[in-house]
Amino acid sequence: METNGDQFAHHTIVKKPKPLICRSWSENYDEVEVPGTPKTPRTSTTPGHEKCTFHHDLELDHRPPTREDMLPDMARSYRLLLSSLGENPDRQGLLKTPERAAKAMLFFTKGYDQSLEEVLNDAIFDEDHDEMVVVKDIEMFSMCEHHLVPFYGKVSIGYLPCGKILGLSKLARIVEIYSRRLQVQERLTKQIAVAVTKAVQPAGVAVVVEGVHMCMVMRGVQKINSKTVTSTMLGVFRDDPKTREEFLNLVHSK
Questions:
Q1: Which of 22, 170, 207, 238 is 20 to 30 Å from 28 at the Cα level?
Q2: Domain residue ranges in the chain
Q3: CA angle, 57 as apex, 56 and 63 as ends, to 5°?
Q4: Which residues are within 8 A (CB) of 112 and not within 5 positions of it... i.e. 6 or more apart?
Q5: CB atoms < 10 A from the CB of 164, how many?
Q6: 252 counts as catalytic
């Protein structure tokens, strides 16, 4: 086993002897949309957006205001929340809490400000080989969209290249893009798999996510030791049981 120098992940390269059937992105998979993202991009011609500061001469897709612009409104909302709880937001311990909470929430959801193209940054390399690449135990932190409380865990990704490989750190970056949003674990798992497919168009992609959800630990059933495991298998990982088994054995090995 080789390590890539990151403390949060290990990667393994395993020889895959049989020839691979390469599939193109457009032929096999539909892109997973982020909830809340309009299907039709909003531009300066969209009613109500004529003066939007995010619309420039190039007619870029509509994007939210800068983070600094959002902080005052978010802080006021947190202040109202504190008051609704019966707290005094002006007492010493809470005086700066609305601003701190707003900044923290923006950090927890920074994935909304990132795109796959920006994160990949051309770190895709031509490489003519048929080896399985597995990066496992990538740390993940996200926010449950149902209760706005955290869930966290680890992600393992495997893919079979078809002439292109991805810089190993970029797999961890892809996890960051989609985990740092309001999420459900099932959708997060699929978004990661689809993003890797879109990036390098491999013969197959496999993703396993193991998460601990604070909405189950702190409220509701309050089962402290419960874990949720989700998986997405695309291409040969879905079609070939032996390839899938090999990946799962690598993921669960010590």
A1: 170
A2: 10-32+115-252, 67-110
A3: 25
A4: 34, 64, 180, 181
A5: 15
A6: no
- Which amino acid is located at 52 in the chain? C
- In the set 129, 146, 186, 245, the catalytic residue is 146
Asked whether the CA dihedral 220, 221, 227, 233 is positive or negative, the reply is negative
Structure tokens at 15: 């020889």
Asked about 22 being catalytic, the answer comes back as no
CATH class of the domain whose range is 67-110: mainly alpha
Fold observed for domain 10-32+115-252: GTP Cyclohydrolase I, domain 2 (3.30.1130)
Q: How far apart are CA 28 and CA 14, in angstroms?
A: 25
Distance, first Cα to last Cα, the chain: 10
Tell me if 211 sits within 8 A of 152, measured CB to CB. Answer: yes
Choose, from 55, 183, 185, 191, the residue flagged as catalytic.
185
- pLDDT tens digits for range 158-213: 999 999 999 889 999 999 999 999 999 999 999 999 999 999 999 999 999 999 99
147 carries an active-site annotation? yes
The yes-or-no answer on residue 215 being catalytic is yes
Distance of alpha carbon 36 from alpha carbon 59, whole angstroms = 20
Q: Residue length, the chain?
A: 254
| Candidates 33, 145, 186, 245; catalytic one | 145
Q: Give the predicted TM-score (pTM) of the model.
A: 0.77
Q: pLDDT, tens digit, for every residue of 34-55? A: 444 544 444 445 555 555 544 4
